[in-house]
Amino acid sequence: DRKRKELKVLYEKANSEENTQRIKKVSGELDELLVREELMWKQRSRATWIKEGDQNTRYLHKKSTWRQKKNQIRKLKNEEGTWIEKKTELNAMATDFFKKLYTKDEEVVPFELIELLPRSIQDDMNIKLTEKNSEKEVSDALFQIGPLKALGQDGFPARFFQRNWSTIKKDVIEAVLKFFEDGIMPEGINDTVIVLIPKGRNPQSLKDFRPISLCNVIYKVISKCLVNRLRPYLDELISETQSAFIPGRLITDNAIIAFECFHKIQHSKNPHNTHCAYKLDLAKAYDRVDWNYLRGALEKIGFSPVWINWVMKCVTSVRFSVRMNGEVLEPFTPSKGLRQGDPLSPYLFLCVADGLANIFKKAVLGGSITPVE
Question: Which stretches are transmembrane (predicted)?
């Protein structure tokens, strides 16, 4: 409004060279502010199907405010089944729930499972994975991030960095390369906000929400650099029974195989049908990953100490804060779990889940179970 008023005053003044130049300058500043406002409303609306050139319409504003009202958490049941409605009690319940969820389980002893993992990394792979990072790798990683993804703790979307890359390029690249040189995560870079996404309609407890982690852009660039180096080798490292996130494999293949197995079981002509199927409960699978198991799995697979240090710094240096109804709550430090929202997490989970595949391989070799053929 201030810029509009200033522009109106300038148009009412007598025509002069100085006034014309001032009008051009203020008009440019107003255009930039309007573009920023439109981007803010697009991001707030989360209507990702809207094309970049669409108008900043009334529909966009209605969708944005509707989302905000829809995601409001007004009451929840606690562990005793009592409804909690007070803001302070809801906030305390949310923080306590996630503190407990991300606290290490001392009864977990992963070493026997780690021993089942085969060494898959070759020396030449480790050399490629740990060679010095280039400025191009950092730039490519930044521009692979969705420009209007939800904001992290720093409050900046990737679009800010991408649009102003010529100005901030040097500082960003220096910060990212320093991490890879020193192996030290600067304080604040890995601060993460947990937002609660309902799994279905009318969620009643915190278990009915999916915790999505909103990471800072600088951290995402570091994580993306690691992912871009790891992806080409996944096909050689990960068991053929896993197909998600691996180039050249389709996750639908596993679903088709499962349907074929069920079809064979149902139409088996064996009078003593001894077939059975395991249904595994992978609820909160990312959140329950034990960090000692993750480190041990990476070591057993054969990753170099330098690479493992980079990965574990990304995982263990995190500090969480829950966002409840727009308010960021008290921060806390976890001792287990992977983040849904971290670009690196799906690929680390592949290494974790390979332990399960090796349990079944051991059982097959031991003769205790026989696979469907």
Answer: none
Q: What is the DSSP letter of 134?
A: P
The whole-angstrom separation of Cα 114 and Cα 108 is 12
**According to the model, what pLDDT value does residue 272 have?**
66
Structure tokens at 278: 């395991």
In terms of pTM, does the model score above 0.85?
no
| Res 125: pLDDT | 93
**First-to-last C-alpha distance (Å) of the chain:** 72
Distance of CA 80 to the CA centre of its chain: 31
Backbone region of residue 337 per phi and psi (left: phi > 0; alpha: psi in -120 to 50; beta: other values): left
d(CA 318, CA 12): 56
Give me 232's structure tokens. 């080409």
Average pLDDT, the chain: 85
CA distance 269 to 184: 61
165-185 core/surface letters (b: 16 or more CB in 10 A; e: else): eeeeeeebbebbbebbeeeeb
How would you class 28 by CB atoms within 10 Å of its CB: exposed for 0-12, middle for 13-18, buried for 19 or more? exposed
Q: How many residues in the chain?
A: 373
| pLDDT reported for residue 64 | 59
> Among 172, 258, 250, 178, which residue's Cα sits nearest to residue 216?
172
Tokens of 12: 């009412």
DSSP characters for 50-106? S-TT----HHHHHHHHHHHHHT----EE-TTS-EE--HHHHHHHHHHHHHHHTS--T
pLDDT beneath 70: ranges in the chain? 39-70, 271-273
In this prediction, residue 26 carries a pLDDT of: 84
Distances 22 to 6, 30, 34, 284 between C-alpha atoms, Å: 10, 12, 18, 58
Handedness of CA 328, 330, 333, 337 (dihedral sign): negative
